[in-house]
Specification:
Low-confidence stretches: none
CATH superfamily of the largest domain: Jelly Rolls
Largest sheet: 6 strands, antiparallel
CATH topology of the largest domain: Jelly Rolls
Bound molecules: fe (ii) ion
Distance between the termini: 49 Å
Number of helices: 8
Helix content: 10-25%
Shape: globular
CATH class of the largest domain: Mainly Beta
Strand content: 25-35%
Number of strands: 26
Length: about 375
């Protein structure tokens, strides 16, 4: 029996070679020699995407009536990850449209969801607490909370949703529940009522101190957050007086006030100011990131290829791709971003490299014990 015949025999029994068997000694797909992933760089330009979404507003109804849907969302499918509904290996992204007077019924799911407001205004409510949303705002909803959205304005209301669906699907723990009427007992009542003692969600995410006792309603500090752009933007301005980062320029990592850690256990959310004239060092990271431009315009160069981006453009930067930021304009540029950095940090796989001015590479190494061996920061000539 030769190797080809043996290969066929293995496949008859749902087995495959676990070694490099060809003459070139090609590594098996699960033995990459550099951190590798299938996520591709892709940009969904707002000027192209918005008219497509508006057509969706004409052909898709919203609600629980016959022929309507629970959500009017268009999934952003990364070309490197087709046929999966995924923007990165772990994150799903869609753009949601609510037209004048429309509301999306209450539902809940185990994936967490972060929303980035693009155009128009409306509200989202999470088990009765409500955030009023305007462009540039970020709102986060943790797992398994009833939530719904509404547009009470004359203009269309667009926002980007990002959920850790691919990760939870991979883990076999993605679960969705759509029928609030089963809770309310009335088929027409598909919205969670507002809480009589409802809080302004901002209050929970902007505190500089947290209670030192068990809260009556601890979820407020752990799983829900609203970061209005009206509050984030002055904070970016304030820290922009600093020298900033040579790879990110001016970047804020949003924090979960309850844990003082990342917004969620799987997701890290940032807001980043690219000051006029800024040009960062080339760098790469093991986590893929979804970006949305919420003010101005800029340029990101990925593996040597420059990509211009404009207001409300959404783009994905793959893990371990070399990237460099520039703002060649005279006005500020602000991008928000979301990634699975929170998860990789917990697992010890958040590694970074940057190219220094002399051409050498500074490497963080694989960072965190006890899961992997710790290496010091090294400079490779
Ligand atoms: Fe949802």
């Amino acid at each position: 029996m030769d190797r080809d015949e043996f290969g066929r025999l293995l496949r008859q029994h749902h087995m495959k070679e676990g070694w490099s068997y060809d003459e070139e000694f090609t590594p098996r797909p699960y033995w990459p020699e550099v951190p590798r992933n299938e996520t591709a760089f892709h940009k969904w330009a707002w000027k192209t995407v918005k008219p497509v979404l508006e057509k969706g507003g004409e052909v898709v109804g919203l609600g629980h009536e016959e022929g309507s849907y629970d959500r009017r969302v268009v999934a952003l499918c990364n070309p490197g990850l087709e046929p999966h509904y995924a923007a990165t290996a772990t994150l799903f992204a869609d753009i949601q449209l609510l037209k004048e007077g429309e509301d999306a019924p209450s539902h809940h799911h185990t994936p967490c969801a972060t929303r980035f407001v693009m155009e128009g205004q409306g509200w989202t409510s999470i088990e009765g607490d409500r955030a009023t949303l305007t462009p540039g705002d970020i709102v986060h909803c943790g797992p398994a909370y009833w939530h719904d959205h509404r547009n009470e304005d004359a203009e269309d209301f667009f926002f980007l949703d990002v959920l850790d669906i691919p990760l939870l699907q991979y883990l076999g723990v993605s679960e969705w529940y759509f029928k609030y009427e089963d809770v309310s007992g009335d088929p027409k009542d598909v919205h969670h009522p507002l809480r009589p003692d409802r809080k302004d969600m901002r209050a929970y995410e902007q505190g500089w101190a947290v209670p030192g006792f068990e809260l009556d309603d601890p979820r407020q500090y752990r799983e829900i957050g609203h970061w209005p752009y009206a509050d984030l933007r002055p904070l970016l301005d304030r820290v922009s007086a600093q020298q900033g980062s040579d790879v990110d320029d001016v970047l804020l990592r949003l924090r979960n006030v309850g844990s003082a850690g990342t917004v969620g256990p799987t997701v890290d959310i940032c807001s980043q100011l690219l000051r006029p004239g800024c040009s960062t060092l080339e760098h790469r990271r093991t986590w893929a990131t979804i970006f949305i431009c919420v003010e101005g315009a800029g340029r990101i160069t990925i593996d040597g290829v420059p990509h211009e981006f404009d207001l409300n453009d959404v783009f994905v930067v793959p893990g371990w791709a070399w990237r460099r930021w520039e703002n060649p304009n005279s006005a500020d540029c602000v991008v928000h971003s979301i990634s699975d950095l929170a998860l990789l940090e917990r697992l010890g796989f958040a590694r970074q490299q940057k190219k220094l001015a002399d051409g050498s590479i500074e490497d963080s190494g694989w960072p965190a014990p006890p899961y992997v061996r710790t290496k010091p920061i090294t400079t490779v000539p």
